[in-house]
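ok so I'm stuck.
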Amino acid sequence: MKYLFISIICILQSITFTAHSQSIFDKINIKNDSLVYYKNITDRIQFEIEELKLDQIRSDISKVGLPRLDTTDQLIQHKAMSLVYSEKHEQPQWVSHIITTDIRYGAEGRSNDFRVDPFVSTGTATESDYFLKTLKTDGSYAYDGFGYDRGHLAPSADFRWSAQALSESYYYSNMSPMLADFNRDSWAKLEDLFRSYIYRNPETQLYIVTGPVLSDDLPKIPRAQNNVTIPKHFFKVALDLTNNRAIAFILPNSKNENPLESYPVNIAEVESITGIDFFHQLSDDIEAKLETLKDPKPFLSGSEQSDVIPDHPTKLPRNTYNTIMAKS
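replied:
not stuck anymore, here's the structure
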């Protein structure tokens, strides 16, 4: 009888523990379900916020950032950039986008999903215009490059707050052939310069239009499938309407020893060289004033503003050298 009593107690304790454990597991499952539910709601709200921001960017580009279109131009509008593609040169004629304060909080990394832009009716350049990729027996690829980077015009890092916009920056309609020494050095520094400006001026946004300087006498990539033109120069124009500032740069597609401060021009000069009419939707007086500005100092950091452009070698006294000559 004693053992039967002990057994009954053990059974009751086991039932109580099992019921208690089951109750805890049920509560945990309920909490986990709640987390999933609220995460789905949060993700949905964040997506809707991002869509509203992208809608605002497209609206701002249309109202201010679009250069004047020719009757034959096909305007391509993506999530956060607009462009006109040059079929003749198999690259964009220009790309317009906006650097917003959201870049300060963006965490998206490079997607590297280079691909043809399906919205360009004439088709775009492809991977085979820049290199050949051959599958080896071990499953890896052998690459045969043609000597040029697929250079972004609207840089992916300007869109790191939006996975959608960042991915679209890898369309070939946003690529031009750039020498590696240019793309990874002075061009990257110019892109960083404008992003850094937004960090120092979080109350504004920058309208950016970028493109190659194209002409009929430029060479082509010899092995490119679609006869891609090799630009000798690239331009980038920037407009800050909040602070009434503007600047433009024209850089040679080569290894550049001179600092960026050596290459500023005003927007009117870029218009004269390229034939593109920038920011034409502004009132005539504001446009005329902003397009003559060429002082880079407002766009430089505090330490950079004290930099001095090296004298040209032809202006130096005999047996003296500037800093660029000394460095080389």
